[in-house]
Design a protein that fits this description.
alpha+beta, 9-stranded mixed beta sheet, 7 helices
Length: about 350
């Protein structure tokens, strides 16, 4: 009796399967895909900042930005040219300026001129007057007359990526400085002058078969026999070994030059010839050259570290490989503290 419900259920399923098979297996048709909705590769393709819809700045946004610009640059010696509002996709700035030089005594040229916002230009003026110029005088006894502009406004994501966040360069809110030029004619690049850390290779693992130095008995120099005496004894022992088969040759027949346990006779050696000046390794370079390199390294390190107190973001060669040849300076607002790397 208990198997009757199961049999009935199996019979119903069999009838339903036969009906479905006779109908050709066609079930309820699925709805067609929306042709307006991207799918596949198109749905995953990122949209670059400049390819996104462009919404122009409002008149109020432009007016507010220009008022802020006038306030930020008031009393500063900056040669600049006001530019039209920039809007390209989600990139741009409502009141950008083209900065040609900063300061007056001396005047620091920005080469090439940089398209930036007014708050960034004001921060550059503070950094140059309070950090860069004092450090140049103290460390190098000269003054900076030119900054090499590697990048200013550029409509792109960070590192030029497709899926990375929007770069501050896309908002004209960042400047990359790659080189300092001085009144003395000297040029200092971030790539060549940034101090490099000298790493010491790890020690080689100890040979487990080698007797430790502490456990190997060492004779005083006064008890070690001269090499000539050792060779003489070796000849006698060898002669005895040829006559008497019960005398084994000793290992002291090895010459003192190949046996590290035989003290060789002290001989006067000529000092090695001094290398030619052009072949001298860097560690033997002239003290003046080494001191000059240390001074350049100190300068770039100091101006980088102090920039962290002026800008919202300061990135240098220790941040990542993308910044190995320049300083990235921007005015991005931070909640807690500035980014300094």
């Amino acid at each position: 009796m208990m198997f009757r419900p199961i049999a009935i259920l199996a019979f119903v399923c069999l009838v339903a399967f036969v009906v479905y098979a006779k109908a050709g297996g066609a079930g309820v048709p699925l709805p067609e895909r929306n042709p307006l909705r991207p799918h596949g590769a198109a749905a995953r393709a990122p949209v670059l900042p400049g390819d996104q819809p462009t919404v122009p700045w409002t008149d109020q946004e432009i007016a507010d930005a220009r008022a802020e610009c006038t306030k930020a640059l008031s009393g500063l010696a900056i040669e600049y040219e006001p530019l039209q509002p920039i809007k390209h996709g989600i990139c741009g700035a409502p009141a950008p300026i083209l900065v040609r030089s900063i300061g007056s005594d001396p005047e620091v040229e920005i080469d090439p001129p940089a398209t930036v916002t007014c708050p960034l230009a004001a921060a550059l003026s503070t950094w140059l007057s309070k950090t860069v110029q004092p450090e140049a005088k103290a460390v190098l006894s000269t003054e900076v007359v030119k900054l090499r502009n590697a990048t200013s406004y550029s409509c792109r994501n960070r590192y030029g990526g497709a899926n990375t966040p929007l770069s501050e360069h896309a908002l004209a809110n960042a400047l990359d400085v790659s080189e300092f030029v001085f009144a003395s004619g000297e040029q200092i690049t971030v790539l060549e002058s940034w101090p490099r850390l000298v790493t010491t290779p790890p020690p080689s693992p100890a040979n487990p078969r080698r007797v430790p130095v502490a456990s190997a008995p060492v004779k005083p120099v006064s008890q070690v026999r001269p090499a000539a005496h050792v060779r003489q004894v070796a000849k006698i022992r060898l002669a005895e070994a040829k006559i008497n088969p019960f005398v084994a040759p000793t290992t002291v027949m090895i010459d003192a030059k190949t046996n590290p346990f035989v003290l060789p006779t002290a001989t006067a050696e000529e000092p090695p010839p001094s290398p030619a000046p052009e072949m001298m390794p860097p560690e033997h370079a002239a003290p003046e050259t080494q001191s000059a390199h240390d001074a350049r390294s100190e300068f770039v390190r100091m101006v980088h570290d102090d920039a962290c107190h002026t800008f919202g973001t300061t990135l240098g060669p220790e941040a990542n490989d993308a910044h190995k040849n320049h300083f990235h300076l921007d005015m991005k607002a931070r909640r807690h503290a500035a980014v300094c790397e």
